[in-house]
Design a protein that fits this description.
The chain is mainly α. The protein is 73% helix and 0% strand.
């Protein structure tokens, strides 16, 4: 049974541009979260390798994990800025440049 008033929450009734912006936001969020988690894993792995190489257990692992966590936090801060820029461009009606934050010096 179809009604004459379409459901405003139905994705089929949205503006294609709004869906593209939302998809861009979601893609940036997943990419940033993935990069942040991988940063911890890589840094901890390098720390573990340094421990086995130089017999300095657990100093290398702790330093690697701290560096990985620092890069995790930095990536999430940059991700927040990137998502905020996308939201602001959506509010102003312009298109968001997905590479704008990568060109900017922090």
């Amino acid at each position: 049974m179809t009604s004459s008033n379409p459901n405003p929450n139905d994705p089929a009734n949205e503006d294609p541009t709004a869906r593209q912006i939302e998809a861009r936001r979601q893609g940036a969020a997943y990419q940033g979260a993935f990069e942040a988690v991988v940063a911890i894993l890589i840094a901890a792995g390098v720390g573990y390798w340094a421990d086995t190489r130089f017999d300095s257990s657990p100093v290398g692992l702790l330093i690697g994990t701290a560096i990985g966590f620092g890069s995790f936090v930095l990536r999430l801060l940059r991700l927040g800025n990137q998502l905020q820029e996308i939201s602001e461009s959506e509010a102003s009606g312009g298109s968001a440049d997905s590479g704008s934050t990568n060109d900017r010096a922090d």
